[in-house]
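User: I'm writing a tutorial on reading structure tokens. Could you give me a worked example: one chain, its sequence, then its tokens, then a sentence or two explaining what the tokens reveal?
Assistant: Sure. Here is the example chain.
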Amino acid sequence: MNKLVSALLSVVCPDLCLLCGTSLIEGEEKICLNCVLKLSVTNFLPPYTDNELTERLATLRADVRRGVAFMHYERGNHSARLIQEIKFNKRPSAMMPILDYHVPRLKSEGFFDGIDLLMPVPQHWTRLLSRGYSQTLILAREMSRKTGIPVARNLYAKRRHTSQTQFDAEARRNNVVDVFAVRNPSHLAGKHILLVEDVVTTGSTVYNAMTTLSAAEPSVVISVYTLSLTL
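And here are its predicted structure tokens:
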């Protein structure tokens, strides 16, 4: 009976691709296969210590153990459109097909080996209130569900910073200075933390999160996961 109801609903109210609006067929979830194939997926390889993300953070003198991005973000491309849906159009579930593919792959390649905590890069409470959700927290929780690694929320935003999209590289760095703080730093002693982010541009936000954590507890080791990295 449930299958019959689902079948009828799929005819009356078909699920549509979030990016192109075409009806999804069996096996497709949130995004049609045609749009998935248009995502600018990165070719980062194990051991994830030498790639565009780690190099970008290294230019900021960030001590990152390893890092990975799923796709490249460029204005107007399918990857950028997907991030816009996730962040601004109240569709964080659009990231689930990516995680269904990417997390098991990273797990099999040893990316999560030795990681003790998943830590989403936080939003200030005022932004969380206006948006209604934190996409990085949802991302970290889904990753936790797939890996068994717990989510830690010791890092928080103590002030709101303006959206980074309107700034050049120097202004982006200045915009996130002294944004973050740490609760209970002793709980992080000796831990390998995976910072979880949705978009990395210059790396300034992630860098400031990293330096805040390291200043609060110098023994932490930090790696980075982001859904997308700007070209």
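What the tokens reveal: The first strand starts at residue 67 and ends at 73. The two ends are 49 Å apart (CA to CA).
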